[in-house]
Design goal:
Length: about 575
């Protein structure tokens, strides 16, 4: 049994046994004594501890939480031993460290940035001069896509703030020697920059600045200023979008929303989702998944807007990972719930039933049953919104009606009910479990413009299709309101569906023919004159005590009896019911 200690290394707490602790403490003590007189020694030690904490974290898990001597030896072998800097073994150690390539990562180089460090970071990753990468972005900017690409990379790519990240950005192994060299190089670069700044100031005061250099410097300063303004505008845009979406979500929660001209409350929308869900877990998955999927990116958009505008510090990696995981969890939950719902629509069943429709004196009246629901809902012609909510109850108007010629001398109606389910038997039951009003009497058909499903059942794509097979010679009257269900009824005059209502239609050998439509609806190619021009028909007109017989012309198709043409001149009442 060994003792364990808790240590804070690079801001992370580790559990370590006593032997490993002694070895690690001796290693760090030697490093501190070596770098205490070195310029930037404290920074080197901080970077070394940060890198070692990352390596130790890779060697721990749920099943292994204590650092042992083997872990310490492996980390020291990667970082390098202090004695490698003091003797001839330095050459051997350097060859080992060069063989350890590490992992090259893309970061934004904020130390050499002009705006966000994207171009300089990519240049460091690909080991090219940052000037070429900036010119490439400038060309892409004028091409139309560079601006958006830069913004996306600025948001997605993290900044290189630690020495570890800066070394990884350049593809160098994060070892003790590289950390020391990098810190020294940075210090030398700062000194060189200050020296160049002093030289420029002296040259400017003494000899004047080079004209060409001044010109390009001014151009880049102007571009930098423009881009800064653009990115500030992007920040305001992100912030505005986030606030607008938040306000919209709050308004939706308290007020509701409009869809296809209908107003729905959040509770009604929840009722619709429940009718689609297979059980409460699927419903909860849809609600929770959609919330997480929206809130995660929304909070990031607001954060990046505030960050761009006010230049606040970036979120720590834990917060970023947390928001990313929440968004991913929401997406996965939605996908799983969506797949479960999709399985409920896998199979389809069609249940048909035939109803005889006896005509009364050759007439059939087709009417829509008008009740309180019909008055409450605006059933418009072939409305795309087939799902209506009235007083918390769902009503479905996915009903279509067509008229075709009967193959026999009798008229009849075929009603088909459709439904889906995870199995064929469930689909069949779902197709049958629709409550739709249909009343047929001699010469009269009353049909509902909507249907419902029983309480406890789910919506599984139920729909109704009705076809009236009209016997040749029978006449059909389409009452007002039928425009809500009729669909693409073929007729001789090619009258548009909504204009077919409140008219009389006779089934002929050529198809459905209107008896009382206006002249403008007649098909000139269909109608021909059987008699030559001026050939008379007769009309009797009674005026006071005189009876006058006038000649008139009657036009009809040769294949139809003359009586059919004469029927067109009869003024039928608009509503006979």
């Amino acid at each position: 049994m060994k003792k364990t200690f808790n240590i804070n290394l690079g801001g992370i707490i580790f559990h370590i046994d006593d032997d490993a602790f002694a070895k690690l403490e001796a290693y760090l003590r030697t490093l501190r004594s070596q770098f205490q007189q070195t310029s930037g020694g404290d920074e080197i030690m901080n970077d070394v501890e940060t890198r070692m904490s990352e390596l130790f974290k890779e060697r721990t898990s749920e099943s292994k939480q204590v650092i042992n001597t083997k872990d310490v030896a492996e980390v020291i072998a990667i970082m390098g031993k202090p004695e490698d800097y003091l003797g001839e073994e330095q050459v051997h150690n350097f060859s080992y460290q060069e063989a350890y390539t590490g992992s090259k990562k893309i970061h934004r180089d904020i130390d050499n940035r002009m705006i966000g460090g994207v171009a300089s970071g990519l240049a460091a990753y690909f080991n090219i001069d940052s000037l070429w990468m900036r010119l490439l972005f400038l060309v892409a900017f004028f091409a139309g896509f560079g601006f958006l690409l830069y913004v996306i990379l600025w948001i997605v790519v993290p900044a290189a703030r630690t020495t570890t990240e800066k070394l990884q950005m350049r593809g160098k192994p994060v070892t003790l020697s590289n950390i020391e060299n990098f810190v020294k190089e940075e210090g030398a670069a700062v000194g060189a920059s200050m020296s160049k700044l002093g030289d420029k100031a002296r040259n400017y005061n003494g000899n004047g600045q080079n004209v060409i250099a001044a010109f390009f410097t001014g151009v880049f300063d102007i571009i930098k200023l423009i881009l800064k303004f653009i990115f500030k505008a992007i920040g305001f845009f992100f912030l505005a979008i986030g606030i607008i979406v938040l306000i919209s979500l709050a308004a939706t929660f308290f007020i509701g929303f409009e869809l296809d001209g209908y107003h729905y409350s959040l509770a009604q929308f929840g009722d619709m989702l429940q009718l689609l869900s297979s059980d409460s877990s699927v419903y909860s998955g849809l609600m929770i998944g959609s919330s997480l999927l929206v809130l995660g990116p929304l909070l990031l958009i607001i954060y990046y807007g505030v960050r761009i505008i006010f230049r606040i510090e970036p979120l720590n990696s834990g917060m970023r990972r947390g928001l990313g995981l929440l968004t991913l969890a929401g997406l996965i939950t939605l996908i799983v719930s969506g797949v479960q719902i999709a399985r409920e629509f896998e199979h389809e069943s069609v249940q048909s039933k035939e109803y005889p429709v006896p005509a009364k004196n050759g007439m059939i009246y087709m009417e829509i049953e008008k009740d309180s629901i019909y008055d409450a809902v605006d059933f418009y012609y072939r409305d795309h919104n087939d799902w209506h909510l009235v007083d918390g109850k769902s009503y479905f108007s996915n009903i279509l009606f067509d008229v075709q010629r009967s193959s026999s001398n009798k008229s009849y109606l075929v009603k088909k009910q459709y439904g889906r389910g995870s199995e064929y038997e469930k689909a069949r039951l779902n197709a049958l479990n629709t409550n739709h009003k249909l009343k047929i009497d001699t010469g009269l058909v009353m049909a509902g413009s909507y249907f419902t499903i029983p309480n406890g059942d789910y919506f599984r794509g139920q729909k109704i299709r009705m076809v009236l097979y009209l016997a040749e010679g029978d006449t059909l009257y389409l009452g007002k309101g039928m425009e809500s269900i009729i669909y693409d009824i073929a007729n001789v005059q090619n009258v548009y569906d909504p204009e077919m209502v409140e008219h009389y239609w006779v089934m002929t050998s050529r198809g459905l023919q209107c008896l009382d439509c206006e002249e403008g609806f007649k098909d000139d190619n269909f109608w021909e004159e059987e008699y030559p021009e001026g050939d008379p028909g007769t009309e009797v007109i009674i005026e006071d005590d005189l009876i006058r017989i006038e000649e008139r012309q009657v036009s009809h198709h040769p294949s139809e009896p003359l009586q059919l043409a004469l029927l067109q001149n009869i003024n039928y009442p608009q509503n006979l019911i």
